[in-house]
Amino acid sequence: MKTFLTLSKISAAVLLLLLGACDSDESKDTGSLIFEFTAKAEDKLLVFGSKKYTTPLQQSITIERLDFYLSNIQVKDAKSDAYYSEPDSYRLLSFDQDQATVTFMVENIPADFEISEIKMAIGVDSEANTSIDHVGDLDPTNGMAWDWNTGYKFLSLEGRYFDGINELGQEIKMHIGTDKNYAPVSLTFDEPFKIVGVFTLVYAVDALAPFGTVDLEEGTVFMNDERGDQVAQDYRNHLLLIEETFGFVK
Question: Is 120 within 8 Å of 71 (Cβ atoms)?
């Protein structure tokens, strides 16, 4: 299985084409990164609610919705090793039958950066997770705040498990959080690149990743316990898969 760290090889010719396009507008002093995420399963667009999928343990499920936080997006300059950090960088990505793709933009990245790495994390860092300052998408009314404790769910997945006995299936509820399940991830580029204008990163969100090793016969509710931690370990390196990168000038 591919992981978030896996980047499709970009040929030197393609990089030169992108950089050449950017050179036409050196007067701009900042650029932007678009992040595009599409919910998928079995390498195809995820069908919410109606289509049954098979987990790695060969158990039949449907997925009704998937929400998770991305936070602390940082862009590294290869020359200076400095990072540009997005302010108030807490992004809630929500997928359901009405929205299979989520897109957002990180702006004001210095145009002279030669980007070699992009860092982010799945979840909410400890400082924000215990704060009452609701910056970015940390809105307690969005359904991702715990109703019994301070802090946020890092990932929330709802669906149904079909064991062959109950025709309607059993409710699946994955509400994963706590500091130990905060998951930093990074994407590195073999050839650093500059952006003047907009550069786009396209990701697949593997909705089956949280089911990697969990046995639904043992229960279908996963919270802040050992089974919830197991879900977090399953998805931390497999939830986000880079699919494509491309650039253009505004």
Answer: yes
CA–CA separation, 171 vs 196, rounded Å?
A: 47
Question: Do the strands 197-206 and 30-41 form a parallel or antiparallel pair, or are they unpaired?
Answer: parallel
Q: What is the pTM of this model?
A: 0.86
Question: In terms of Cα–Cα distance, which of 66, 179, 92 is closest to 127?
Answer: 179
Task: Give me the amino acid identity at 51.
Answer: K
User: Distance (Å, rounded) from C-alpha 216 to C-alpha 205?
Assistant: 21
pLDDT value for 248: 58
Whole-number Cα distances in Å, 69 to 45, 138, 240? 20, 9, 12
* Per-residue pLDDT reduced to its tens digit, 228-240: 999 999 999 999 9
Q: Which two tokens stand for residue 60?
A: 């039949």
